[in-house]
Amino acid sequence: GLVTGLDPRSTGSAVDYAVRVAGRLKAFRITARILPGGSNHVLVVQTDSTRFEAVEQRLREVERRQADLAELTADWLWTTDEELRFVELAAPSDPFWRRVQPRLIGQRCVDLLEDAAETIARRRPFRDVVASITVDGTVHRLHFNGKPIFSTDGIFRGYFGIAADVTRSYEAERARDAARSEEHTSELQSR
Fold it and tell me: Taking 70 as the threshold, does the pLDDT of residue 83 lie above it?
């Protein structure tokens, strides 16, 4: 009864099942296919997939944890494709990010991150790149960090990274600089 539903004429025909062995749950996969040459011989292979099941479970846990972290962070998570176009923008529930998102999807990151264009062309990580974007008539400063994504066989797949709206801290720094400059000018004039 274990191989019920297994059709060796179908490519990739498989049945997954689990049994308890020595108190531990073990996962197995049985595959079957007709051997070439027109014979009625069938090759049946049983594979212990317990390790694969554990790896898949761990991967699901890591993905869930990453999603939870994305919800907790004030930063914005982004991904590009091989052509460097923004394809994914995971933003917190900040209304600003929701307005920026449709403007950036499909845009090439090198058009926004001009200061990192050479680094991106070399497929290298970059940090602390500040870009400006105007939203609703207001210029916002965005801080970007990014890292290239390569497949296991070394093929470039795009970039991923984080960004943050640093407009308030940028404006506060400019105000401090202006106050220092004004103070310095006043000192010079009083001499």
Answer: yes
